[in-house]
Amino acid sequence: MPLHPENPYATANPYAAPNSYAAHPWQGSRSRPRTRISACKHLLLPLLIAFPLSILVFALEQVSNYILRANAPLGIVGIPESAFPPQSSSSNDTYLGLVIDSPIDGMPSNFIVATAVMASLFAAVSALAFWELRDGGAGSAARVTAWRWANVGVTVLNLALVVVCIVVVFLAESRNRREGLIPLMLAGKPVTRETLMCGAKDLKDWEGEDWVVVGCGSAVAGRWCLVPLLVASVALAGVCLGMGVRGKGKDGQKEGKGEEGVELGSV
Q1: Which is nearest to 161 in space by CA: 225, 223, 125, 118?
Q2: In a domain, 38, yes or no
Q3: Residue 152 lies inside a defined structural domain of this protein
C-alpha cells in the first residue's frame, strides 16, 4: 500500500513535509526553462549591447563625414588668414590674402566605419549562434560543436578588429593633435577629419559656420564610443570562449565514457 493513495510516487523521507510529494515522471523537468532563461541572458550581450554600440559608432561617424563632405565637397578645406594666429614682427612669413588648404586623411574615419559595420555583422552572427546553442543545442553533436566554435571564432575576430581599429585611430589622432592643425596645413600634410574640424573650431576668428562644432563633437564621440565597444567585445569573447572550453570538456568526458564502455564490453 503506498504512503499516499492519491499519489503512488510520494516520498518516503521522514524529514519531508507531510504534503510534499516527489515529482511525477509526467511532470517533466524544470531545468529546461532555466536553460532558456540563461540562453536569453547570453543573447542580451550581442543583441542589446554590442550591436547597438556598433550602430551608434557607425551613425556618429557618418554624421561627421556628411557634415565635412557638405562643407568641403572637393575634400579640401581652406583656412583664411584671419583664422591664423598673428605672426611676430621678426617673421618673414605673412598670411595676408592667403588661403591655406590641405588634403584630408580619411583613413581613420573610414576604418572606424568599416569596423562598426563588421562588428554589427559579427554581433548578429554571434546572436544566431547563441540561439542555435540554446537548451544545449539541437541536432547532432558535430553540429553543436561547429556552432560553438564558430561563435568563438567570430567573437575573437571581432575583438581583434576592434583592438586594431582603436590602436590605429587613436595613434593617428594623437599624432595630428601633437603636431597641430596650423603646422600640418602649412606643410601641406594631410589632416584627419576630426583634427581638421576640432582644430578649426579652436582657431581665433574662424569664419566658418557651426558645422565645425557639430562635426567635431560627432567625430570625437564616434571615436571614444570604440572603448565601450571594446569592453563589450571582450565580454562577448570571454563568454564564448568559456562555452567552447566547457563544451570541449563535456565532449571529452562523453568520449572517455564511451571508450570505457567498449573496453568493459570486450572483456
Answers
A1: 118
A2: no
A3: yes
